[in-house]
Design brief:
By secondary structure, this protein is an alpha/beta fold. It has a single domain, classed as Alpha/beta knot (3-Layer(aba) Sandwich), CATH 3.40.1280.10. The strands form two sheets. Strands 3-2-1-5-4-6 form a six-stranded parallel β-sheet, with helices on both faces. A hairpin with an 8-residue loop joins strand 7 and strand 8. It is globular. The structure holds S-adenosylmethionine.
Length: 195
Amino acid sequence: MENSKPTPLVNQPKIVVLRWGHRPQRDVRLTTHVALTARALGASGFILSDIQDQHIEETVNKISKRWGGDFRFEMGTPWKKAIYDWRSSGGIVVHLTVYGENLQASDVLAKIKALNRDVMLLVGSQKVPGEFYSEEVSDFNVAVGNQPHSECSALAIFLDRYFEGKELAKSFEKAKIEIVPKERGKEIKTHVFSK
Ligand code: SAM
């Protein structure tokens, strides 16, 4: 069965993901997956804090260029500055952590959504600084279940709950390449845009 035209996520506050603690070499693949998950599941941008990694930037920007949308990649910004700037411009910060309020068993998501403000999602890698749990940094500490797993899965589930699944049918503007969903086989459409 072929899908009808996907709907964009309209009138939604924007979500940006901040990835803290990236370790060069060791985390390249996982950090790339965190960024691509953010993009594919409705976030507007990704900040790789405190460190530069040209390889990840290239991969993410290349995918955004081919597959469309307006996903912003930023790197090297010190985490304190990124959070300070975000909060100063009216956004809230949600720290995804195994120790937080349970996404399913509490009303934390309802509280976040009721604020109707742009959200910065903070995800770690190695053990995060203790300050992350404080109200100076995070407005909410949210656990995607109180069992340890991964920044990638925590992010994916949070975004899906936040956007209520609509992100899965989101269209990406100016995509050069687009998949035609099918029961079987593969079909891809290509689009050419004049500059
Ligand atoms: N051992 C580290 C610590 O104590 O902070 C956490 C390592 S975990 C592999 C990396 C990141 O995945 C965490 O910083 C958090 O953002 C995310 N994460 C893992 N499990 C999670 C959960 N159940 N709920 C929310 N986020 C989770």
